[in-house]
């Protein structure tokens, strides 16, 4: 290994990666610490997924040695997160991580222990950096969950490796940083996978065709149709039809005809085009409702989409492992094992026509077609975030791409994806809304992309039998297909776990139970007269909390030992409310968090409404003795009916 590359173990026999005489300094040109729930929970999950028999590479740290210390050129978010993680685990670190000219960040790093102990009297909270404090709170929460196995986690953490890479002396760091952030500083697994699959094709023109489809699919912004750019939209129309909204063909020859080296253009522009008076850069945004400009954001990144598509391919072609007792694909969607997943299918996969290893060229062609067709279905029928104009506040969206205008003046616009029977256009919005609500309930329940199996299941249903389900009236059942995924999860992870009629999983109650219940309550309300919950939307409410607290504030009211973990006493809230919310009485929560509750979970809203005194009994006491039980029976009744539980 080069002298400029050092293998660092996070923890080891001789201490941890911060036990060094060299200081890591985050320069001012780097952004402040910004990792949140998604990245930090992913870090914990990555560590928990480490196999027992091997080390695990978790990323690289690019540094430049400057005046006897390492200036961090790239990797500071992960480096800072690892520093916080070790401290949250109670592992002592030397103060070798600092931020240049960011006094609040440095003060916070030096007072992690006091923040963990909540010794606010010993620290100046005005000097605490909110981003780092949030990271500490998230990590601490993850590490104190009931199911967290510290011993196993520490064993796996010892196998984690980071490569510290020093840039050569006299490197122009500003230029290096600019290039690195424009192009990406390291080759990703999906880049290697692309090259591997292309190598199976012997014809250069076919390799070019493969690359063009892959590149269009790899851009997860917007809709895939908009990533095929050519003169007069010829390629786009050859693939997706004159309205840009038809299912891509399932024939390699049709793609060879549609995408040739003479018709497909790059996203760049010629000088002669740029100087034209009416020249405009085409982008993948469009319009809804007249002049409202929108952009869309995918719920998953491309490496995960590749894994979903691989499972779709395996299902469509009946791929099995040559060893009957072995799985051809893993259950987890682990982007760190992307190459392993594809290698197993290619090396060990068998179909009705024989071993995939004996026909790699056919696999490459078949997979790239499957990738484009699956991406088309994903864009049209799987929820995304939609942002109007320059707004930073997105909303859940299920829209299809359409066109307006004629010939070269065609422009994209977006309308609700249709889930109706032939001729029943009047209920389009109703069914679109139902699909959005059911999918968003699943999305916020499974925050890690590794466990978003609901996406795979929906894509397989949409793809099966040459996409028969989008060619006839069966698409009206799509919301039920999604709902059945939720029902199966609630049955397996709640009703089958709880025994003897006792539903007391406490904070370990799966989030899907709360979110599916909210979906049922919303749907019942929508079909009723009151319309109390028409404003309800699914958000990332990631913390299960007790309405009547486990540990009352400073003994101000009675502790509840026996029933505090019952489902009727539980609610789901946003994690950033957690620390203030947890130890208050129900009355105090109701009055203090009025604004949060009115926009919160429907179950939480109902609990708040039920928190009233009864006669001479205070609200908290009445809740603990009577009200919670009646509430629980009503909520379980909704779930049991939907899940067909006796």
Characterization of this structure:
With 646 residues, the protein is of the alpha+beta class. It is built from 24 helices and 19 strands. The protein has a six-stranded mixed beta sheet. Helix 13 (302-316) crosses helix 15 (360-381) and helix 19 (511-526) packs across helix 24.
Structural class: alpha+beta
- In round numbers, the mean pLDDT is 87
**How would a textbook summarize the main sheet?**
6 strands, mixed
Structural Rg: 27 Å
List segments where confidence is low: pLDDT < 50 over at least 5 consecutive residues.
Answer: 262-284
Summarize this entry quickly.
Helices cover 43% and strands 13% of the residues. The protein is built from 24 helices and 19 strands.
List the helices and strands and how they pair.
Elements: E1 5-9, E2 11-12, E3 15-16, E4 24-26, H1 37-48, E5 56-66, E6 69-74, H2 76-88, E7 97-99, H3 103-110, H4 112-116, H5 130-143, H6 150-157, E8 160-166, H7 173-183, H8 189-199, H9 204-218, H10 234-240, H11 252-258, H12 271-274, E9 286-288, E10 292-297, H13 302-316, E11 320-321, H14 338-348, E12 349-351, E13 354-355, H15 360-381, E14 384-388, E15 395-397, E16 399-404, E17 411-416, H16 428-445, H17 453-467, H18 478-495, H19 511-526, E18 543-546, E19 570-573, H20 578-581, H21 586-592, H22 594-598, H23 602-610, H24 619-643
Parallel strand pairs: 4-6, 4-7, 5-8
Antiparallel strand pairs: 1-8, 2-3, 5-6, 9-10, 10-14, 11-12, 12-13, 14-15, 16-17, 18-19
Helix pairs in contact: 1-5, 2-5, 9-15, 13-14, 13-15, 13-17, 16-18, 16-19, 17-18, 19-24, 23-24
